[in-house]
Amino acid sequence: MTQVQDYDSSSYDYRDYWNGRSYEHLSEVAFLKKLISPDDSSFLDIGGGYGRLSSLYKNFKFPILLDYSIKNLKNADKNLIRVCADVYNLPFKDGSIRHAMSVRLMHHIENPSDALEEISRVINDDLILEFANKDHFIAKIKHIFDHDFKNNDVYFQKHKKDSQGWKDSQIFINFRYAYIISILKKSGFIIKNSFSISNFRNGYAKKIFNTKFLVSLDRTFQPLFKKSFFGPSIFVHAIKKNITNKEAFTNIEDIFCCPKCKGNLNKLSCYNCGITYKKIGGIYNFKG
Ligand SMILES: C[S@@+](CC[C@H](N)C(=O)[O-])C[C@H]1O[C@@H](n2cnc3c(N)ncnc32)[C@H](O)[C@@H]1O
Ligand SMILES: [Zn+2]
Predict the structure, then answer these.
(1) What is the pTM for the complete model shown?
(2) pLDDT of residue 136
(3) Which among 32, 207, 211, 278 has the fewest CB atoms less than 10 Å away?
(4) Is the pLDDT of residue 161 over 90?
(5) What's the gap in Å between 144 CA and the centre of ligand 1?
(6) Is residue 38 part of a domain?
(7) Distance between CA atoms of 249 and 139, rounded to whole angstroms?
(8) Start-to-end C-alpha separation, the chain
């Protein structure tokens, strides 16, 4: 069975990760702002945590924050549509979501091919997908010092034992660009553009230069970074190959389906398999 990185299995508070990382946060926000323009449709943030990036999509008509962790969702803006679910089994009808984004989720995904198939199933327009880049500049240098020239696998997986208090081993995966592109295409996406973001994610650079300067440097050298896949974080903007004409919906519950059997729901109960899902404290819980 595919393992899921469960942020609820430890006392770790993901918000703490962002202390001292304003450069990384602001360079992602500055970049994403150019790609996201709110409209009267839906925007889905997959594995969106506590909604760190929600200022970018909160003005869509249906801003949906989806995450596997109830704890993270409880820490999010209550005005978002908060959905607790697993990316491998999304609780949305086929093609019911217009725009989607997933940032810093892929490095926890053991089976990216299955996850992207499922994401593709629900999207009817575009996806911004971030992944941790196996071939970034500093990793390449490290490989030289480690005499690690033969690491030609499509991706590698590194378990950091209990570094943040998790009981089980954690999933941290860096992917090759070509591999992610191939599975995006296989899942029905056309690649529009790719970018290398927060390229100065380095302790020394952050000590020497101030955040604003580094963010602007990141933007200035974007064409160069983009070509060389320089940085540790790559963003791909992809469009669905077959966009269909969908009727607009008025109530979010109209696009929910059973994540297990994909059957229709009646007041969160599945007509098909009989499972009833719950909405507690404003959060739709499809985790089961
Ligand atoms: C590193 S955090 C990134 C959060 C947010 N996207 C951000 O950039 O701040 C990874 C998030 O992915 C969620 N996650 C991990 N596995 C998941 C899965 N199978 N389905 C949905 N969310 C998952 C975790 O609960 C966590 O909130
Ligand atoms: Zn069902």
Answers:
(1) 0.89
(2) 65
(3) 207
(4) no
(5) 32
(6) yes
(7) 46
(8) 16
Distance CA 27, CA 170 (A): 26
Determine which residue's CA is closest to atom 6 belonging to ligand 1. 48
- The answer, yes or no, to whether residue 167 has pLDDT greater than 50, is no
| Dist. CA 243–CA 250, nearest whole Å | 20
What pLDDT sits at residue 207? 72
Question: What whole-number distance in Å separates Cα of residue 69 and Cα of residue 283?
Answer: 11
Does 16 fall in a domain?
A: yes
Q: How many CB atoms lie within 10 A of CB 151?
A: 10
| Whole-angstrom distance, CA of residue 229 vs CA of residue 215 | 17
Q: Is 199 within the bounds of a domain?
A: yes
Q: Tell me the pLDDT tens digit for each residue of 243-287.
A: 988 888 999 999 999 999 999 999 999 999 999 999 999 999 999
* CATH (domain of 88): 3.40.50.150
| pLDDT for residue 159 is more than 50 | no
Residue 133 is part of which domain span? Answer: 7-285
**Tokens in use for 288?**
């089961």
Distance CA 72, CA 62 (A): 19
Could you tell me which residues are beta bridge partners of residue 130? 235
Radius of gyration of the chain (CA): 19
| Ligand number nearest to the C-alpha of 260 | 2
Residues 110, 156 contacting (CB under 8 angstroms): no
Assess whether the C-beta atom of 82 lies below 6 angstroms from ligand 1: no
Two structure tokens written together for 163: 């570094």
CB atoms within 10 A of CB 205: 14
Query: Percent of the chain at pLDDT above 70?
Result: 80
Residue 2 lies in a domain: no
Task: Report d(CA 91, CA 85) in Å as an integer.
Answer: 7
Q: Are 89 and 118 in contact (CB under 8 A)?
A: yes
Number of domains in the chain: 1
Distance CA 25, CA 208 (A): 18
